[in-house]
Protein 1
Amino acid sequence: MKKYNNEKEFLENYDVTKFDRLSMTTDILLVSVSNKDSINYRKTSKKMISILLVKRDEFPFKDKWCLPGGFLNPKKETLDECAKRVLKKETNLSNIYLEQLYTFDDIDRDPRTRVVSSAYVALVDKNKLIYELNKNASWFDITEFKEIDNIVYITMNNNNETIHFSIKKTLIQKTTNQYSFLILKNESIAFDHPKVILSGIERIRNKINYTDIVFNMMPKYFSLSELQAVYEVILGEKLLAPAFRRIIANKVEKTDKMLTGKGHRPSVLFKYKET
Amino acid sequence: MKKYNNEKEFLENYDVTKFDRLSMTTDILLVSVSNKDSINYRKTSKKMISILLVKRDEFPFKDKWCLPGGFLNPKKETLDECAKRVLKKETNLSNIYLEQLYTFDDIDRDPRTRVVSSAYVALVDKNKLIYELNKNASWFDITEFKEIDNIVYITMNNNNETIHFSIKKTLIQKTTNQYSFLILKNESIAFDHPKVILSGIERIRNKINYTDIVFNMMPKYFSLSELQAVYEVILGEKLLAPAFRRIIANKVEKTDKMLTGKGHRPSVLFKYKET
DNA sequence: CTAATAGTGTCTATTAGACAGTATGTT
DNA sequence: AACATACTGTCTAATAGACACTATTAG
């Protein structure tokens, strides 16, 4: 190996082809909540988790759905910037909650060549998206999410199509409950994106109890019942109203707005209290 | 753009140079705990967090300390496998707790070329390492770790050398307490590794309260006082013994072993209860 | 009036914090 | 005996769970 006298000299002679190189992408799990309206005018609408998928119009995985994503430009872009660029392209918004989720790197996750992907979770209130979505993009509502014997079954709907997949979770670290994921059934989603979807939803579920992450999916003004319904759909369980109100009391601020016209007592609207 | 009839045809004609490529590495923050023995034979030894650093003998950053790491072989290795390979090389052990921490990707973090690094946290009881360390590797004890006005000051020692650095934390996400890190002062550590060290320690600190992560750093048999001391050094605060014992009671199992010879009442040894 | 949800008061059960006290080894 | 830590009992404070009750609207 050649010897250099200083770092400058070393760098001037550095051969970038010395190590094999690869491509990187970011994939973004953009999550929001939707209302499933009821027929009965009195009943309140149920909440569902929604995620944005894009129909691929090119190979590989042509005609399958995938998460919005894009290749990293290694010369001038960080992963965060790349994720923001993709989000801007899909939603026309710049100020969206964004968090690095996990770097997915199965060797054959992309049939073209080795592509490592840093996945991000993004949260938005989808009613804030005033522009129309790109023509290949569509919101899917998660209508079923259940875990039985370490197998997770997920069903999603847009207005035309139902997607179903299942993932087997295998415990690989008892001390910290780390699981590895194996896709059991999946006919509609490209790459390893079912794993990204599951691990993103689990991330939100974990964080909802010890952070204020939920407010990134809420409109500016909301009732406590609505907020509770969002907690319930993310946690996958019913909560008791008095306890819930006690816990979030110091995170929200009462306004003088009311939500009326619902066939029952109107609710006071609150907003997120930024301390 | 050329049209293909099916995925197979597309893949056969795929040009891997279509997107710019880059290199990836894994860097490993290997964490353990040490005893700082007291002069007084009665006093119990204080615990310190220890991390493994390696002295670089090549450019760039020649003669600086860095985390053990290595380039990913994109043809046949996952990031996890790469991390395990590095750990095996440094510790001669294969069954070490390992967890992906974060993917660091500042554009100029490596002066050679664009190198994105997926950092891992690894935990071990360093007394289990029966072989000698590689000649460039050394355990550093963290002797100071304090945060004042969002600046974190860290001091580390091996037997010859003291390393000091400081990092400024800037809140970038109020809802989830996300911070960006800026290295303020650092003369001894290569790359962006000060950031990796801080974010790894914070990860452990977060997880110690809701997982059993701590037992990856403990010997097979330990007293509850020792265990408490490890919690205290990781959390950076004193705990009350009765409360601590209540909380960890169902995570540990009493053995019939005792720890004697300490100039005070001997302690019962416990082991981790895997349920 | 009725159906439906909004919102609160209060009792109980569980968990966390604090402190004082007893136990038991080494020198 | 003196010191130092190991370990436990118990009181109190805070938090969580449960349920019953009152309030208020559209139709």
Protein 2
Amino acid sequence: MSDGRRERRKAARPGEIAAAGLALFTEKGFAATRMQDVAARAGIAKGTLYLYFPTKEELFFAVVREALLPRIAAVEAWVAAQRGPAPEVLRGLLAQAGAMGRGGVAAIPRLVLSEAGRNKAIARFYAEEVVARGMRVVATILARGVARGEFRAIDPMAMAPVVFAPVLLAMQWRDTIGRHAKGPLDPAAMLAAHTENLLRGLTP
Amino acid sequence: MSDGRRERRKAARPGEIAAAGLALFTEKGFAATRMQDVAARAGIAKGTLYLYFPTKEELFFAVVREALLPRIAAVEAWVAAQRGPAPEVLRGLLAQAGAMGRGGVAAIPRLVLSEAGRNKAIARFYAEEVVARGMRVVATILARGVARGEFRAIDPMAMAPVVFAPVLLAMQWRDTIGRHAKGPLDPAAMLAAHTENLLRGLTP
Amino acid sequence: MSDGRRERRKAARPGEIAAAGLALFTEKGFAATRMQDVAARAGIAKGTLYLYFPTKEELFFAVVREALLPRIAAVEAWVAAQRGPAPEVLRGLLAQAGAMGRGGVAAIPRLVLSEAGRNKAIARFYAEEVVARGMRVVATILARGVARGEFRAIDPMAMAPVVFAPVLLAMQWRDTIGRHAKGPLDPAAMLAAHTENLLRGLTP
Amino acid sequence: MSDGRRERRKAARPGEIAAAGLALFTEKGFAATRMQDVAARAGIAKGTLYLYFPTKEELFFAVVREALLPRIAAVEAWVAAQRGPAPEVLRGLLAQAGAMGRGGVAAIPRLVLSEAGRNKAIARFYAEEVVARGMRVVATILARGVARGEFRAIDPMAMAPVVFAPVLLAMQWRDTIGRHAKGPLDPAAMLAAHTENLLRGLTP
DNA sequence: CATGAATGAGGATTCATTCAT
DNA sequence: GATGAATGAATCCTCATTCAT
């Protein structure tokens, strides 16, 4: 009990640091983010960072994990709870996804793609824990729709990434190029067109 | 006449340097690419690089320009030459895109997305010279299809990015995560599913 | 009585810590030894170390003291107990010295020489408590031999370091260079040659 | 010719840097010497150091090489030129050695012994290029003395290190402990006693 | 024009030491 | 007393950029 304050602090630290890391990696990218700044943002000293994460790479890993796993779990739960027609579930999922990612999570796919070419560990983790699970959620909806005769016969695991590719592109555009150029691409219009055309295409 | 060789040499330099830059940016990313190595790969001295490109950023800019503009022009020309049914043209375009990008160009969207958040110039250039033109090409096909009654009534500029989003995702996957994890996503199957569903969805 | 265990514990601590320090300084050198590791090896927490030794330098000091003083006292006692001919005593001493130092003490002269140039305190301590006493022991034997007519007339304090210089070199070689290079120097042969030649040279 | 000044400069640099390194390693030891300071002492910028020596360890290696090889070669030449009686040559060599090492070279054995336990490369190099050659020089004199009947029959390679062990000890004492404590050990008296006793012992 | 030697700001990481609990 | 979380000074090394030749 005497160490209560410190203990509580220590338990909370990794999460606080990961949050600071997410904010900075998102804003500046992996290479341009200084450990010093992550520490400052987390309200701790430079050296303290290394009590929790031995290298910058490990921190990045943790950031990805902390930011995505809870979201994925939430989506999985939401989908598992749905009982309505598959097309409606799919539509709901796409609507959610479009709104999501505001908090910085949207930057993660971009960061991961930048690093994954050289970092096998992050590539593996992302493939298995994020992409595979994400695809499975979507595939579940698709398979259910096929089973119920709401969708034509398709391979759910081949179609799954087609479902979210436009969502990813819209998010990346919004957070990068779209910030500087009003440009030709309207994320909202794009997602509406995608949802509409996807469901038409899936109609038996 | 005695300067002919040197003149030609000098004129070719920027292109050679940009090619070297493309190769290295592709392989290692922007931050991890050293100017020294670009020079070595281009067969010139480090200092010489700076006679052609004042900063690393300018070099990156040139790399993007040199790598993409010819490809886009080629695609524009190809599309302009097509006279067949719009669905067939679209199918042909997607097949080409899937095959394309082998040579390193595929890395460029990734590099640009990584930098664009902080670099307004690159964001603007990419939005206008690459994305806008690319979308216009696709929109042209879509509009023609609508006009000929081969596609249902859609907004071509909203649908255009939906057409190539899965192509982009497939290329990024193949070059990054896919290199380390055989994982859940099969780029070829994904593109096939996409093409099929897109055209079904567009059917009047 | 209830504090008996703790008392004993506390009294034993400095020795246990010094032993841990000796092992690590020996293995890694002064600079490369981390206080953290000394604490771990001594079975205590990092902070506890500082209750016994205020700085790393003080710890080093204690390590030298604890490791050498008992040995020197033992040698002094052994020599004082000898009654035989001086050449035999000297031979016995050299044999002992060659065998000694296995346990880590051999590293101390090396450590001290590395630090002594910058640390007057350690230099003084070592000169007075270790070298002077060591030389006195040897000089005692030499003087006795001279008095008994077993050695020619020599200055015992000038000859004393000549007696153990080859012993020191042999030990240093064995523990450093000799570990990586079978090399040209054979410590055992060297010590045998030294003993033989020393005694021949001392013959009246 | 136009790059003459620079070329000459570049050729001289490694030697200048090694000299600066020798001075600082000698004064502060390996770990306590900062690359920054070596650069400053050599009159160049920190980064320039790394154009010539990729790591601190490589610099140390070079320092050892540059400082010792010329001396050894000089001693080899001197010995090869001697034609007089072996005892006189040996006496001359010991006198030289006692005077030598003033310039900082004397610190090298100490530095090497400190590092060699953990650095196989430096151990190997020192064993082969320094110790083996040094022993061979001494052994040559000894063997010649035996052949000419000036020395008793001995194993030259076993006796060689006995010849210079007291020289090494005297130099180390003078440069480290002796600087702070007038202490019990008088290097000059020691070397005189050594020379005398060594030659007596070698008498047939 | 071309070169490549030189620069020095910048950043990741380590570790002796302190101090609240 | 004992602990170990926290600190931040210290140091190696990298690399974009400059400029004398």
